[in-house]
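Before a colleague's protein record goes any further, I have to sign it off. Alongside the sequence sits a line of tokens, each denoting a local backbone shape. I want your independent view on whether this chain really folds as the tokens say. Where you disagree with what is written, explain briefly why. This is what I was given:
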Amino acid sequence: MARPDRTWSSISRAGARGLVAAMAMTGSRTVAAGVAPEERTPPEAIVERHAPALFSRLDEHHREAVTELLHWAYGAGGGVAFGLLPARIRRFPGTGAVYGLAFWLGFEMGIAPLLGIEQAKHRKVVWRVLIALDHVLYGVVVAGRLAPEPAIDADRSDGEADG
């Protein structure tokens, strides 16, 4: 039986917010790339490291599009994971920002080393700050703080957390 604070509706909305958040990150990463053009984004580094033969057959524009689609899918998955958190945790205003930073640190300290992506260790401070802010944006969007759900922001007397 589904818990009232974790309905398909609330989880799918969180997944959709994750997709939109990953799309928003595309813009902020474009700015970051302008500041530090020698840096590769995590999605670029993963594709270059783990699928070079497959992606080398694609022209540059198709390679960029597929890389971005993979990032958006990952972002949507992160949104679904956020939606699975209990409402009492999602309710706090700072949860989204903390979640976004944790999502990034999880990549930097866990996934990147497992995938053999070394560049994460050698990033410039400015790049790290921009990417951290990028993930704060992600978390704020995933948490619905730009357009909050009433059920998350206010306790309901009937015990339901999703309407």
About this structure: Confidence is low (pLDDT under 50) at residues 155-163. Residues 8-153 form one domain.
